[in-house]
């Protein structure tokens, strides 16, 4: 399993708009992507910071999404973003998500 960690600085008072865009635009797009498993988002309203972690079956699936779907996600979030999101990728070492065993290193 593979994970993408996206850190985003939000414009002041835009957390409700961020949540709406995630629910109405981003999640439907992610659900159509090959290998997509789950998305978890966190918002620290007092700091105008959001983090999204998406889980993927394989690195190749996450990379394909990065090239094709992710630009659409950023475009949808433009009204609430303050700057460019930072993306990091990881191989999942362990998870309790649906009892999926991570690869052993």
Question: What class do helices, strands and sheet pairing give?
Answer: alpha+beta
Q: Provide the number of structural domains.
A: 1
Portion of residues within helices: 25-40%
How do the strands of the widest beta sheet line up side by side? 2-3-1-4
Instruction: Write down the overall mean pLDDT.
Output: 91
Number of DSSP strand runs:
4
Percent of residues in β-strands:
25-35%
CATH architecture call: 2-Layer Sandwich
CATH topology: Alpha-Beta Plaits
Stretches where pLDDT falls below 50 for ≥5 residues?
none
What is the CATH first-level class name? Alpha Beta
Question: Which outline best applies?
Answer: globular
How much is the radius of gyration in Å? Answer: 14 Å
Number of helices: 3
Give the N-to-C terminal Cα separation: 12 Å
Main β-sheet description:
4 strands, antiparallel
Which sequence of SSEs, written as H and E, runs from N to C? Answer: EHEEHHE
Describe this structure in words.
There is one protein chain. The chain has about 100 residues and is an alpha+beta fold. Helices cover about 35% and strands about 30% of the residues. The protein has a 4-stranded antiparallel sheet with strand order 2-3-1-4. Strand 2 and strand 3 form a beta hairpin. It is globular and about 35 Å long. The mean pLDDT is about 90.
